[in-house]
Amino acid sequence: MSPSAPTSARAPFASLSVEHASTVSRVATELRRAVFEGELESGTPLREIALAESLGVSRPTVREALTVLVAEGLATREPHRGVTVATPRAESVRDVCRARWVLEGAGVRAWATAGDVRRQRVRETLVAYTSAVRGGAASYEELNERHLSFHVSLVELTGSPRLVQMAEALMDELKLALAQVDRLNRNAHNEAESHEGLVELLEAGDVDGPNGAYEFLRRHIDDAEVEVIEALGLE
Amino acid sequence: MSPSAPTSARAPFASLSVEHASTVSRVATELRRAVFEGELESGTPLREIALAESLGVSRPTVREALTVLVAEGLATREPHRGVTVATPRAESVRDVCRARWVLEGAGVRAWATAGDVRRQRVRETLVAYTSAVRGGAASYEELNERHLSFHVSLVELTGSPRLVQMAEALMDELKLALAQVDRLNRNAHNEAESHEGLVELLEAGDVDGPNGAYEFLRRHIDDAEVEVIEALGLE
DNA sequence: CCACCGTAAGTTGTCAGACAATCTGACAAG
DNA sequence: CTTGTCAGATTGTCTGACAACTTACGGTGG
Fold it and tell me: Do the Cβ atoms of A162 and B96 come within 8 Å?
């Protein structure tokens, strides 16, 4: 009973990533979305049975997806107490920012030796962000996404997939933290000039100077750290 | 329900971590051990049913443990083809070393501002390594372990748990690579002086000089990279 | 002899149901 | 008001099953 479907149908590239991904990764993606958009507040317990019924999948599948979330730092698991959406603490925000500084700083220092392709990518992500800010049409989540993509593109200057992957994980943690206060700082995205200033310093080749890109980045991330912690009402 | 146990209950060290861990983490630990000790060669397919029977656990449990291994980079999963022990390629070794350089470099630069506790820990891990090298009694795996612990202690100078965690993941990938050739370079551990030289530079406060600790570290890691790649017969 | 194709076996991805261990909260007893 | 106990809920794990997919084998035709 196998109607010989398109037999040698060497699909060019299947369809887009979200289409034929495994059930586990689809569930994980859905959970991530819900967390980032604030549908699931920090501290919310993620009950396996409820999620399984709600998403129409089995409990083991939900369990695996939850394991992924935990590994990404978006949720925490305690033995016999289950998985809950992670609660951003001041200490973890500080740590994320310190780690960001190390990774992005390495990217900034690699500006001169990174290829033209990667430098061009930094310029593109910058424009994608600034134009969205000034266009005013993009949603808050979209602005966040583009903002953080710019910072990831800095890490891409290192040319190291592993460092980029680490940076993306850090950005996900920040997205989680920001999702807790999205309504508070919807208008806090006046940082377009700041980012442009950073790239101008890079284009000018001023990296290690006392007012160079490296120091500029340090202050930029420090400011973001304070801002996030205050917005969360921590400390 | 709290029998007033030893009041100042500074438990010496409780029992060892492996005691009451979940079944999944015990299986993951066992698999890691097998990979690091070369029982499972690179490229070996990890069949779920075989592992479940061999370890006396169920298939879902094995699946979760395999997911952990994959997340740690010790194995790779391909859809419908299963999980296999990761194969270190020249490109990934280079990437791991580049990432190590960024993380450990950040630690070295933080030497002056890191607390005395962390500086002391670097000295201790150094002695633990050098004494093991010169004592000659430790096994090859034990030498590797102490060697990499020293490098992790450098990252600990940053005081960032996330950076330390990333470093540990990188070290695990290196341990996997080294496990493929453990018999080849059992005698390659004459690096005690090199590490002592690094710490001496740090103690002297010479970090950013042309022959300072930072540059010293870069060469040290570069050497390790070349050595590992050659030992693996890659490139 | 070689290339091609269809079938069969094996493995993974996912589901359903079940049970013991453990945690939580409420209720009764002192 | 504290303490002990119990029932409900949830997780951790197991067993069994089935569809989808990959791979290997053997037959067929050039």
Answer: yes
**Residues of chain A with C-beta less than 8 angstroms from the C-beta of B96:** 162
Contacts of B98 in chain A (CB under 8 A): 158-160, 163
Q: SS3 of B26, please?
A: helix
CB pairs under 8 A between A and B: 55
Q: Does any strand C atom come closer than 7 Å to the Cβ of A28?
A: no
3-state DSSP call for residue B78? Answer: strand
Q: What angle do CA A165, B152, B13 make, to 5 degrees?
A: 115
Do B217 and B98 meet the contact criterion of CB atoms below 8 Å apart?
no
pTM for the full predicted model: 0.89
Query: Which of these, A165, A169, A155, A168, lies nearest to A118 by C-alpha position?
Result: A155
Top pLDDT among B55 and A13 is at B55
**A83 strand-pairing partners:** A46, A77
Q: Which two tokens stand for residue B162?
A: 């996330």
B22 inside 8 A of chain A by CB: yes
Distance from CA of A184 to the nearest CA of B (A): 27
d(CA A105, CA A217): 7
Name the closest residue on chain B to residue A94, using Cα atoms. B160
Contact with chain A for residue B162, Cβ under 8 A? yes
**Between B49 and A182, the higher pLDDT residue:** B49
Strand C nucleotides within 7 Å of a protein CB: 6-7, 11-18, 21-24
pLDDT at res. B186: 56
pLDDT digits (tens, 9 = 90+) for A99-134: 999 999 999 999 999 999 999 999 999 999 999 988
Angle at B22 between CA B17 and CA B26, to 5 degrees: 65
For residue A5, what pLDDT is reported?
31
Question: A68-89 in b/e burial notation, b at 16+ Cβ within 10 A?
Answer: bbbbbbbbeeeeeeebbbbbbe
Beta-carbon contacts of A216 under 8 Å, excluding residues fewer than 6 positions away, are A197, A198, A201
Distances (CA, A) of B25 to A21, A73, A131, B21, B35: 26, 18, 47, 6, 15
CA closest to A79 among chain B residues: B22
pLDDT band at B21; cut points 50, 70, 90: confident
Determine the Cα–Cα distance for residues B1 and A223; give it in Å rounded to an integer: 48
